[in-house]
Write a structure and sequence with these properties.
The structure is a single chain. By secondary structure, the chain is of the alpha/beta class. It has a single domain (26-60, 80-387), classed as TIM Barrel (Alpha-Beta Barrel). Helices cover 49% and strands 11% of the residues. The protein has an 8-stranded parallel beta sheet with strand order 4-11-10-9-8-7-6-5. Strands 1-12 form a two-stranded antiparallel sheet. The protein has a two-stranded antiparallel ribbon with strand order 2-3. Helix 15 crosses helix 16 (359-391) and helix 15 (341-349) packs across helix 17. The radius of gyration is 21 Å and the shape is globular.
Length: 424
């Protein structure tokens, strides 16, 4: 809430206004103006006709918050625990690759702001900076946030590594070793993107940064991958060819199966000394159960923001059944379609432990780099706090305990329970 008050005060009394509106539609439109055509198309493209993307938003609209009044919640606590770490709020930075097509510094300002605000940062295997550099930037931000009281609880940051597992086992092991050596505290194995979904505009414009020699820095900084390039006789100055080989090493291949999952978990556990492992891309309760049986501590509920399968279930619609099946045996991280503090509140009510945002901070990065990311995420934090206040709750634990009582399912504005009674 303080960020709102500061904006009012600085604007009216000092003439210093926020850098831009964080209204989702205005934010997206401004990013569209600032980005190149290719940058915009890659950031905004969805699978097929975009029906899954639309379903994500419709699902949020179908759930209505039912606020409680006269609650003594003038002092609220947005903090939550995740694997013995205290987050300033149950909000995370979702992994998004190729950040250099949005800003020349790529993932660095994003990792820094996450550290400042005391929120988990997740680096994608498709990232456009080395694993080590993103970690250093996260630590710098965390130290700054800790020293200045911006929200960071720890001076060493909190970061996860999102894994697209290569079928080259030695390469995969080396990526994980680099992540562990750089202080990443969990591995998030993404299983819904071993091949890209059909995205019309990207295909029509041949919009693929890797094949143009852009954003293969993570591979270029990997000793195993570069050894493979030398073995294959690849010209080290041929960045488009290297970019092609890099992305082809973990996408466009053969999908992993359930029998492979325990082996990948064991690889991470052996390298990391037992740090948490999660699977990202879950939309079915039975798949969540199989992940837990295999040894996962994190279930990441997502449909990749509608970018992989057209006509798929909304991620929010999948969440309640998954949360019921998991029943506290693993932490649930949720993303897809999140645009506001209200959306975060709803997802928490429906069973998420942490809600991750992607496109929102991408728009901020595209508009104004580090300043833009910080502004967007501080606005989200402020809005979430205000929603908690006005909904009548004072802690994340209270949301978890009373989530079902705080929401009502009303598709198209219709209370189905009342409608059923009226028919009787």
């Amino acid at each position: 809430m303080q960020y709102q008050r500061d904006a009012f005060k600085s604007g009216t009394q000092e003439g210093h206004f926020p850098p831009f509106s964080t209204d989702a539609s205005k934010l997206e439109a401004l990013a569209h103006e600032r980005l190149s055509q290719n940058g915009w198309l890659y950031a905004s493209s969805n699978a097929g006709l975009g029906t899954t993307h639309s379903a994500n938003r419709e699902a949020f609209n179908n759930w209505k918050i039912v606020p409680k009044m006269l609650q003594p919640n003038h002092e609220r606590d947005t903090r939550t625990q995740l694997f013995e770490k205290t987050l300033s709020a149950p909000i995370a930075f979702a992994p998004i690759g190729i950040n250099k097509i949005y800003h020349h510094l790529g993932e660095l300002p994003v990792a820094k702001v996450a550290g400042e605000l005391g929120l988990p940062y997740t680096l994608s295997t498709a990232g456009s900076v080395p694993i080590e550099d993103a970690a250093k930037s996260n630590v710098v931000g965390a130290q700054q946030g800790y020293n200045e009281g911006l929200g960071a609880q720890y001076g060493d940051g909190l970061r996860y590594y999102q894994l697209y597992m290569p079928h080259d086992w030695e390469l995969g092991a080396n990526l994980l070793q680099r992540a562990v050596d750089s202080g990443y505290e969990a591995c998030i194995f993404t299983v819904d993107t071993w091949s890209l979904g059909w995205r019309h505009d990207d295909v029509a414009t041949s919009n693929y940064a890797f094949y143009k020699g852009i954003a293969a820095d993570l591979g270029l900084s990997d000793k195993v991958f570069m050894k493979r390039m030398r073995e294959q006789g690849i010209d080290m100055n041929d960045l488009p060819k290297i970019g092609e080989r890099w992305v082809d090493s973990y996408w466009h291949g053969v999908p992993w199966g359930w029998d492979d999952l325990p082996k990948i978990i064991k690889l991470w556990k052996d390298i990391s000394g037992g740090k948490p492992f999660g699977v990202k891309g879950i939309q079915r309760a039975e798949d969540a159960e199989r992940c837990i049986e295999a040894g996962c501590e994190i279930i990441w509920v997502t449909n990749h923001a509608g970018r992989q399968i057209d006509g798929a279930i909304a991620s929010l619609d999948a969440l309640p059944a998954i949360a019921e099946k998991v029943n506290g045996r693993a932490k649930i991280i949720f993303d897809s379609g999140v645009r506001s503090g209200s959306d975060i509140f709803k997802a928490l009510c429906l069973g998420a432990d942490v809600v991750a945002l992607g496109r929102q901070w991408i728009w901020g990065l595209s508009i104004q780099g580090e300043v833009g990311v910080r502004h967007v995420m501080k606005a989200i934090l402020a809005e979430f706090d205000i929603v908690m206040m006005l909904a009548g709750v004072k802690s994340i634990q209270e949301i978890k305990e009373n989530g079902k009582d705080l929401l009502k399912y009303m598709p198209n504005g219709v209370d189905l329970a009342l409608a059923a009674k009226a028919k009787i």
